[in-house]
Write a structure and sequence with these properties.
This protein is of the alpha+beta class. The chain has helices at about 35-45, 70-80, 155-160, 175-185, 215-225; strands at about 5-10, 15-20, 50, 60-65, 85-95, 100-105, 105, 115, 115-130, 140-145, 190-200, 205-210.
């Protein structure tokens, strides 16, 4: 893999724009993976790094690391206390509501039910000449999602729950839509991107907002749908 895109770095923290399909660290559920963000970044900056939070393997965008244990502890506490602000962009099936709060509890892998809340707003909609099932056209929305909680696959599961699954999401998305995009446009990535993260710097106490540009795949689909809302 080419070098990771570093979007922020100081003596305490470093952040990257994580590409699609890169695991944050080794995982028993993906034993075939050979590259991980933790090791790649460590080797790139020649320094040990501690992941402060997680992004799904298929999700791109802002991923923050601490450079020492004390900073890591302080930053993890901010995520635990829900004082950080995370915003994601996604391209989903159908015309999503203008604004919506999804309050829908999700099960952990061990069967424990946890509260989960996601706030979404629709930035733009598109209808293109792409026959799908009994419909002569296909409709899509560009949304911004702000998770209030941080459950595994939360945005993916919540968008599927409200029947606006993220394009390219497997297994939570629409298999027929995913197949359509694969066959028509050779599109294999999931169109979910962590575009901004806001937090209080644990040392300077200043408010920091980090932003990451979407992947080329996301931008290609964005342009194909003739969206205009974002400055890509």
């Amino acid at each position: 893999m080419n070098q990771l895109e570093i979007i922020y770095q100081d003596s305490y923290l470093v952040a990257i724009n994580k590409p699609h399909d890169l695991l944050v660290h080794q995982s028993p559920i993906a034993r075939n993976a050979e590259e991980f963000a933790v090791q790649l970044l460590r080797d790139q900056i020649n320094q040990k790094v501690y992941p402060v939070h997680r992004l799904d393997r298929k999700t791109s965008g802002v991923l923050l690391f601490a450079l020492d244990k004390d900073t890591n502890r302080a930053m993890v506490q901010q995520f635990t206390n829900k004082t950080t602000e995370k915003k994601y962009w996604a391209i989903v099936r159908g015309f999503a509501p203008d604004v919506l709060t999804i309050d829908y509890a999700l099960y952990r892998e061990d069967g424990v039910l946890q509260d989960a809340v996601t706030h979404i707003k629709t930035l733009e909609t598109a209808e293109i000449d792409l026959p799908f099932g009994k419909h002569l056209t296909s409709r899509y929305s560009l949304i911004e999602a702000e998770p209030e909680t941080g459950r595994m696959h939360q945005i993916r599961k919540h968008m599927a729950h409200v029947l606006h699954p993220i394009i390219g999401d497997r297994p939570h998305g629409c298999n027929k839509q995913n197949k359509l995009w694969l066959e028509k446009f050779n599109m294999k990535s999931m169109l979910l991107h962590a575009h901004s993260l806001t937090f209080e710097h644990p040392v300077t106490k200043e408010k920091v907002t980090l932003k990451a540009k979407p992947s080329n795949v996301f931008a290609t689909v964005y342009n194909l749908l003739n969206f205009k809302a974002l400055d890509l």
